[in-house]
Amino acid sequence: MSKKLILIAFFMLGILISACKADSVSSPTTDPGQVETQVAEEVANQLTQIAISEPIATMTSEPAVPATDLPTPTNTLLPPTETIPTSEPAGTTSIPPTSTSTASALNPTKRPSPTPTPLPFACKLIEQSPENGKTFKPNADLDVVWTVKNVGTAIWDQNEVDYRYESGDEFYQNEVYDLPESVKPGESIDLIVDMKTPDEEGKYDTTWVLRRGSHLLCTLKVEINVKK
Length: 228
Description:
The protein is α+β, with helices and mostly antiparallel strands. Among the domains are: 3-53; 123-226, Immunoglobulins (Immunoglobulin-like). It is 23% helix and 27% strand. It is built from three helices and eight strands; from the N terminus they run H-H-H-E-E-E-E-E-E-E-E. It has helices spanning 3-26, 32-53, 100-106, and strands at 123-129, 134-136, 141-150, 162-168, 176-178, 188-196, 202-212, 215-226. Strands 2-8-7-4-5 form a five-stranded mixed β-sheet, with no helix packed on it. A three-stranded antiparallel β-sheet has the order 1-3-6, with no helix packed on it. Helix 1 packs antiparallel against helix 2 (32-53). The chain starts with a helix and ends with a strand.
């Protein structure tokens, strides 16, 4: 209760006491209880008016909560959504064009390498003696050896396959030879030709072939130098 209320209360109490004394002296026939009641009602009315005009502070026993202990309010506002203008009519879905070249570069199609089909009759030159460009004396005996391999799928029958002179300089002893034996696929054989170097100095070359009828299996060539 404020000091103002206390002062008013004491003031009213003094009035009440004075009224009681005055009534007891001047009007002995007046009912003291009635006077007290009127004074009490007057005091009550005055207190009510004061209470209305002045709020009464309410005391609480609970300590004030520090500001730091209060929960931090959460901002639940969502940012505005930016609307991108488009020139396409409503309800149309825009699909970006796909670059065919880019897709092909990222996902190249692996194609299997073509596998050559082996020919029935084919051969491969493995080794030659003498090597091309070697020098010999005039009229010297010379054995040329070609080592060849059957890389086909058919057998070289010794009665069907031969090797013979084809073109170039003619310094051989025999023009044609039969296979010494049949050759299976994957096997190798030495083809030997008896030759004799020319009388004159110079550079000479000769070409021979391995054949089965009209089928050419290998082309065999040798080059020599003749010098005294």
